[in-house]
């Protein structure tokens, strides 16, 4: 019987029993890392569960096959919290934090209440910050670390590796420049040492009350580069644009899936009467947008980044300013010499090189017809077949993920092995 077959019972699991074995969170995390997991899920009514390449599996070799009980899980999680963190969790019913295990790794933690019991999801964060080239990112991204001012956005769905990519850009700035880097994160994920730059990392909740408060004061802290963990609201976006206007390089993330959508999302946050002003400011300050996703490799042992890159040329700035965003995809296709590319073009390149399967490309592409054309197909029959394959692709993906988690060993050299994975929280 799998954990999914277990039926949750309020009487059995909410109150717990004094006879349930104690949980050691650090030991569970060590086993999860050894299994190549990206996330560890802990909730009542199910045993400890990990996510391996998108598939949810019971944690192997944990010795825990029975569903977790409320008292057992609460004692496990509260053991790693400070008194202040416990108070926040009980008052707000949510808590974001980071947790480190010596010799194992660092973890982003979200604790929450559900069904009147505490639960948690822990995301693995690699100790080592991989260079952009080791992550398989396009060469043009290395040039962004040399920008003196402007706004660079790394976007994508949840679990697409945005934090890993931004950490690599910040690390390159740190190694190649002399300056001051300020980060505002929730929580701090990758730890940066002082190298060529002084690096100050502020965590929301521990070092500052919120993103808005931190960004309000960041310009008085003499920064050269500002990293914003996420552009969440109108005020955060306004301050980020203002910082970019005043001669700082601002790096930030958004949950958008194309360059065109990214510009639209930023503009639409503002009231209608302000939107033209924001288009003008964005056209002047935006330097680049990188939209990425992670695709399972054809051998099932790793993941490959598929990336859309928009570099803001004078032509693209005019499209943003004049609200002609529908022209952006065409500009990306024509901007290869500037390092620009569409997501579909990069997926097609991966398929031709044998890095990913065509089914995986179809599942992750933004336009099936465009993707098939880039692969060299042109017939109506090919297009119909591609649509059918795209419909079936999620099933194939689930099977591949399950195989990777069970029968195939993950490649330990894969830089995305314990980074964010598609479908992960």
Automatic annotation (TrEMBL):
Taxonomy, superkingdom? Bacteria
What range(s) does the Bacterial type II secretion system protein E domain occupy? 219-233
From the UniProt entry, list the residue stretches annotated as the region Disordered: 1-23, 399-425
Q: Which SUPFAM superfamilies match?
A: P-loop containing nucleoside triphosphate hydrolases
Alphabetical list of PANTHER family matching this protein: TWITCHING MOTILITY PROTEIN PILT
Q: Say which family it is in.
A: Belongs to the GSP E family.
Q: Output this protein's name.
A: Type IV pilus twitching motility protein PilT
Organism, scientific name: Nocardioides marinquilinus
């Amino acid at each position: 019987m799998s954990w999914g077959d277990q039926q949750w019972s309020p009487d059995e699991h909410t109150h717990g029993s004094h006879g349930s074995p104690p949980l050691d969170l650090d030991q569970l995390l060590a086993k999860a890392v050894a299994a190549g997991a990206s996330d560890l899920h802990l909730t009542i009514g199910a045993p400890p569960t990990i996510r391996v390449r998108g598939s949810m599996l019971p944690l192997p070799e944990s010795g825990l096959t029975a569903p977790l009980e409320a008292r057992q899980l609460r004692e496990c999680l509260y053991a790693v919290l400070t008194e202040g963190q416990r108070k926040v969790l009980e008052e707000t019913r949510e808590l974001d934090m980071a947790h480190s295990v010596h010799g194992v790794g660092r973890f982003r933690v979200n604790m929450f209440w559900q069904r009147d019991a505490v639960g948690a999801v822990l995301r693995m964060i690699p100790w080592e910050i991989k260079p952009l080239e080791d992550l398989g990112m396009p060469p043009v991204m290395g040039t962004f670390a040399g920008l003196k001012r402007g706004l660079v956005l790394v976007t994508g769905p949840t679990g697409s590796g945005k934090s890993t990519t931004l950490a690599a850009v910040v690390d390159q700035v740190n190694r190649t420049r002399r300056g001051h880097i300020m980060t505002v994160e929730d929580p701090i994920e990758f730890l940066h040492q002082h190298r060529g730059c002084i690096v100050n990392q502020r965590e929301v909740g521990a070092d500052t009350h919120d993103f808005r408060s931190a960004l309000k004061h960041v310009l008085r802290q003499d920064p050269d580069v500002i990293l914003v963990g996420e552009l969440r609201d109108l005020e955060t976006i306004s301050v980020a644009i203002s910082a970019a206007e005043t001669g700082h390089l601002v790096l930030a993330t958004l949950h958008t899936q194309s360059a065109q959508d990214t510009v639209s999302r930023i503009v639409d946050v503002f009231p209608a009467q302000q939107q033209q002003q924001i288009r003008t400011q964005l056209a002047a300050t935006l330097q680049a947008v990188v939209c990425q996703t992670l695709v399972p490799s054809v051998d099932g042992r790793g993941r490959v980044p598929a990336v859309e890159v928009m570099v803001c040329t004078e032509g693209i700035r005019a499209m943003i300013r004049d609200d002609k965003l529908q022209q952006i995809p065409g500009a990306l296709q024509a901007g290869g010499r500037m390092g620009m590319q569409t997501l579909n073009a990069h997926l097609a390149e991966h398929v031709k090189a044998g890095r990913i399967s065509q089914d995986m490309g179809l599942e992750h592409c933004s336009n099936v017809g465009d993707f098939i054309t880039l692969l060299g197909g042109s017939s109506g029959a090919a297009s119909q077949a591609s649509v059918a394959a795209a419909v079936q692709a999620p099933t194939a993906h689930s099977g591949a993920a399950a195989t990777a988690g069970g029968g195939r060993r993950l490649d330990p050299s894969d830089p995305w092995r314990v980074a964010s994975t598609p479908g992960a929280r």
